[in-house]
Design a protein that fits this description.
The protein is an alpha/beta fold. 35% of the residues lie in helices and 17% in strands.
Length: 229
């Protein structure tokens, strides 16, 4: 039986493409997925906010208290001497490309337009065969309209497409007033594919401890109704 198909312009041997998940953290898992019939793999997402948070934490820990004693400034290396940023993720793409023969699709979640552009270029240079834009943010501004939020998706897609030559897909939640219109606008912006995301991870908050609680519920058949519509 011929199961070959095309996705994002890529010729795939089967329509099986494992989505972004912790499974892609391991090169051994990538090989196992390839052996099991996967025709491409989407790596877990690179989060710009997480990268920036780690950079800020390193800067703080190194420089904390150094102004108290003049000699302290000579004890620590300069923050610029540390390897920070998406280096680990970029290295994972390169190792994945060396380990398997199937396409490797990188996943990116940016926080600013400049970050989307910069990291997208780096992911392409690292060897990613395609890029999946994991656009997700929680609008909390009361004066921000739904049209402005939708335009953010278009702006991100347009900006990324202008700086990379590899295929670009974008994740879409089912929570749009007019999904068909969003799909049409993203197509006009040059996006090569749409990933219909079924549901977002929704952690709970403990009112007693005032801390975020990990609350993972596995999908059920009922969860499919919303994305399918």
């Amino acid at each position: 039986m011929d199961l070959t198909t095309r996705y994002l312009g890529l010729n795939l041997r089967t329509p099986l493409v494992p989505s972004a998940s912790p499974l892609s953290d391991s090169l051994d898992n990538l090989k196992r997925m390839e052996d099991a019939g996967a025709s491409a793999v989407v790596l877990h997402s690179l989060f710009e906010e997480q990268v920036r948070s780690e950079q800020d934490a390193i800067q703080y820990q190194i420089m904390y208290g150094t102004e108290s004693f003049a000699e302290a400034l000579t004890y620590f290396p300069k923050p610029t001497e540390f390897v920070t940023g998406p280096v680990e993720y970029l290295g994972q793409i390169r190792k994945a490309k060396e380990s398997v023969r199937i396409p490797i699709i990188a996943s990116l979640n940016g926080s600013g337009l400049g970050g989307w552009i910069d990291y997208a270029k780096q992911l392409q240079q690292a060897g990613a065969d395609a890029l999946e834009l994991n656009v997700y943010f929680i609008p909390t501004e009361m004066d921000r309209t739904s049209a402005e939020i939708e335009q953010t998706y278009i702006d991100i897609a347009t900006a990324v497409k202008s700086v990379v030559s590899i295929p670009v897909a974008i994740k879409l939640s089912p929570f749009f007033s007019n999904m068909a219109n969003m799909a049409k606008r993203l197509d006009q912006a040059g996006v090569n594919g749409l990933v219909l995301f079924n549901r977002f991870y929704q952690p709970d908050i403990s009112l007693e401890d005032m801390e975020v609680q990990v609350n993972i519920n596995l999908s059920t058949t009922q969860d499919m109704r919303l994305p399918l519509r």
